[in-house]
Amino acid sequence: MAGLMAGFGHYTHAVVRGIPASLAKEALRSSQSDVDLAKAQREHEGYVEVLRTRLGLEVVELPADESLPDCVFVEDAAVVCGDTALITRPGAESRRRETEAMKGALKDLNLNIVEMTDENATLDGGDVLFTGREFFVGLSKRTNQRGAEILADAFKDYAVSTVPVLEGLHLKSFCSMGGPGLIVIGSSEPAQKALKIMQQMSDHRYDKLTVPDDLAANCVYMNLPNKGHVLLHCTADEFPESAKVFEKLKDHMLIPVSNMEKVKVDGALTCCSVLINKKANI
Amino acid sequence: MTTEAGSETEVKEKAEESAAQPDQSEKATEETQEAANAEVEEKEKEKEKEKEGKDGKGISRYLPTWLKKQKSQGQTSPTKEVPPTEEAASTVTREEEGPAPAVNGHAEEVEEKEAVKSEQVKEKEAESHSNASADTEPAKEEKVEESAGSPEETKEATEGEEEGKEKKEQQQEGEVQGEGEGGGDSQTSIFQSPLRLVRKTKMKLVVCHVTLLDGSDFTCEVEKRAKGQYLFFKVCEHLNLLEKDYFGLTYQDSHEEKCWLDPTKEIKRQIRSNNWQFAFNVKFYPPDPSLLTEDITRYLLCLQLREDVASGRLPCSFVTHALLGSYTLQAEFGDYEPDQPRPLDYISQLTFAPNQNKEMEEKILELHKSHRGMTPAQADAQFLENAKKLSMYGVDLHHAKDSEGVDIMLGVCANGLLVYKDRLRINRFAWPKILKISYKRNNFYIKIRPGETEQFESTVGFKLQNHRSAKKLWKVCVENHSFFRLNAPEPPTKARFLTLGSKFRYSGRTQAQTRLASSLIDRPAPSFERTSSKRISRSLDGAPVISITEAGRDTAENGREPRLELHSDSKSPMRVHGDNIYVRHSNLMLEDHDKTQDEVLKHQASISQLKRSFMEAPPPSPPQPNQWEKRLTSSPATTIRIQQQQVVSVPQTEAAAADSAISDTKEPAKTAEVEIEETVVVQEVSKATKPGLVTVTSSSPTGPPAEQETREQEVKVEVEVVVAGEAKAVKQESVSSESESEEEAEYHPNVSVSFSHTQIPEEKEEDEEQEKKEEDKIAEQDVSAPDAAAPLPAEITQPAEETKQEVEESSKEDTEAEKNKNTEQEKEGERETEESTDDPMITPDEAPNGLALPEEEAETGLVAPAEEDEEPKMNGEASLVEAESRPQVICCSEPPVVKTEMVTISDTFAAQKTEIATKEVPIVHTETKTITYEAAQLDGNGDGEPGVLMTAQTITSESLCTTTTTHITKTLKGGLSETRIEKRIVITGDCDIDHDQALAQAIKEAKEQHPDMSVTRVVVHKETELAEEED
To answer: From which residue to which does the signal peptide run (chain B) (predicted)?
Structure first.
């Protein structure tokens, strides 16, 4: 009997999506860069493999859609907490249709679906940081106040605080959860500022793990039976300094996952999956 | 309300005390004897003041009274009778309650005054005839009571007191009703312990209907003049509830809003409508219900929460609704019985959620099955464990608008103040971050402690729907802060001259106290009957609104209501001074007042005289209230004595500091009288744990008083001297208003926080990691400090310049407060670094010319005194900064004028939308004393006239470091030219500093240096660092 807010990081399922060929050219990106499609696909396969094989999650893999170049970043399409799934309304017009497939998949998993129908609302899942006790929603280029309000409505149990995202694409472009009560945060000024705001807004205490690279601060935390704390984080190739920091986490099963290509189109580790705890049905 | 009586003044005062203190009679008699004339003046304090003020006597006369009150309280309380029943219930906690009654007294004052006036007057008259001496009177009353019929005398202070009060009042009433004037003595009202009264008289009984949490009605008879507490105790007795401090009674006011029944006030005066209908509700939601001692308490909390959830007041998700519902079923019906045909039937008759549907009910049943074997108590506990995690648990919401007119909600809870826009939390102010809470008209302000990266305090303003709601919000904040953050309720406001407006304070026990009390509960778990959730099935009316506002009373938002004025009148004479002192308030009030300018001026003049005499007075020995008078009237001497009124408890970080500000006004030409002012107000806040108070030490996890005793002897004395010369053209109205209305009030949470330990941890928690660095730094500095020449860092800063603008609303209070804060923070920082051992002396003269920027220090908290000495900094920059930032100070429609020397007010709220500084200066446990001598209220400088920092020097001697900063401000506004010099002297040392001496010297110097100016205000802020405990 899991009570309210119990079992942060417990997941049984993951929803992922393939990489369309259009990603290389058409995916949105904040900086000019050429993506090696094949390499990106290999990376993604490795990512999915970790989830499926290494961690034993039930992985639901949605097919790529060539008309949706960013569709691999499923996180933005839905926010799942407990047995409720909020289907978002992505801030980028070109990505709105990504939610359709996601909705179907989540429905199939018997989640309570809440849709964001308000046309004034935008929300990217990448702006939603769930700490286990509360939500922080980054107000960014992709997410607005109305979107955050709808999220608050969908998850009434939790406090939902807004955090301005001044730089970077999403809130989670420079932070993520590294464990219960542990926020991994980049060391840039905007990141630290955002952290301060989060700390001020919260009734709860959080530890923080500061990593030198903002992008490295995006990692995937899980708490799995028989495996304990699991952390998917950046590789030493990519961010050597930050990787060292992660290696200090002695209690975690650390799994470096390469993300060299997807990062070129602003894709981070959390972006590529929606994690679900099907036993969350209390 | 009728306030017309000629004798009102007297009455008022009496009434005040009558609420809780026996002393009233004293006062009453005094006054009656003293001045028959005073009666006539009643309504307008101002008038009174004027008249009386002329000779100075008038005021002085009041002073003693005030002082006496306290005395008498102490004396009388022990002798009161305690009703047997209550004894039983309250045995555990009595001691603790001691402070409470006093507090209540204040709160009640206002209302009571009005109500009781006439009767009391009569009484008193009667009494006065019989008894010449004030002191004897109280005794008399008691005697009467005794004779009347209650033989039992208990020493238990609180309850006894309260009861006693009630009795008295009733007595009075009885007299009035029965006999009118004559009866004075015991004839009519005989009454015994409330719970088993035997009333012989005509006292009217009223039937009260109280809706309990299970939906049932509890009916009881109450004497018509009974106080809220009486009814509340009866209800608790009926419920067999011991941990009652989390609960309260609500009623609907004339605006259909739910209000909390003030336990210390007469019920009749609160409900107004003659609708004796109440509801028993949870007032303070315990953050961790598992810490409650008794199941019955948890059960009642559950009932409240079920209702909160069902009504939608406590929002939660579908799943949570189902889960909570399932625990409710388990608690009420026991294990799920598969054979039962009825499940879906009965379940649908219960209300679990605002939009309950079949699906939810099925889910509830499904979950119910999983609870098999769980006892009702366990189910309740599980219910609470889940409910407490809900983000809106225990959050009391109030509609408001932010500075931009955007609709928001302000949520008051155990941790602080939350700001919501729609459902989103957009800001949060933890209690430790809040320095002051105030309201004015329909504005509500909080002053925020500057963050690590911020130099200045900021004030955030919100606009409430009306004055009533602003006041209500303020009260809720005061109560919540007191309950959750303090060791003991803040002592009575009587001692606080500085505060205007409502004296309301939380009167009950704090959470710490109630926890201690409940830890002592020694009875077998009471059996109680679960009522199958009668209540759950019926949806509740709105959330209980917390507020003790007197509904009918204050309607005029700005207007000055006669009543309000009366209140002010009734308030002790000290009040008057206070009013004068704080320009900001007074100004506002002036607007509302009808006074003519002349009156104002006269009044002011009289006050100034008083002040002057006060200032000149020699330092008398121990601070005794009565000495005040002496000083005021016949002060030969030279030094200022600091009185100790224990008003406040210890602020977390702030060591004992005494700020003394002396401001003089010179007047150019026309207004001679006005400018001769000197400070009269003395306030000393000693935070030290008083032995007398209930120390919640042991039980409270957070802050053991014991530690306080271990405090290190680092004492810093800060002396601020403000010398202001003002050339005033014609109008000085602003200065004079003395309105003391309930339109506004302030509350300094931090200052009064005795729970320093708790707070400290909290803040540390927030910025733990960040602060680590800081701490490191500090540590380093510690090391370095010794090396530095000055073992005892004493800082004397004379920074702030303040611009006075008569018209401005700004109050010196703000400045002071801010100054204090600044300094405190400095101190915080410094403290850690300092470890010197000599006796600090304030010797600005000797000071080498080091320049220190207090502000900077404050910011970082890292500045070691030693450093200062070594590297004097120029202050000019600092002041500039200030000036620049000031313009930002815009909150709501009525910018709270915060005046600061070094402090800049900014609209943080707006700023925080993008940026919020979390860090705070490391907090040190400290004791604080603040003493303020005020003369002129003239400064309204709030509005941001940039001050000019003239000089700053730091003097270091062997044992102490002294930093002096001087700010000079000149203001030209509408023909009015003012020069104000503010000196701040910070002395830091290891050992006790004779702040009296320091103060005397500072004043002396100030006078010498600026012979043509007068000292307007002296604030002495003394901080003592407590021994650091590991948190």
So the answer is: none
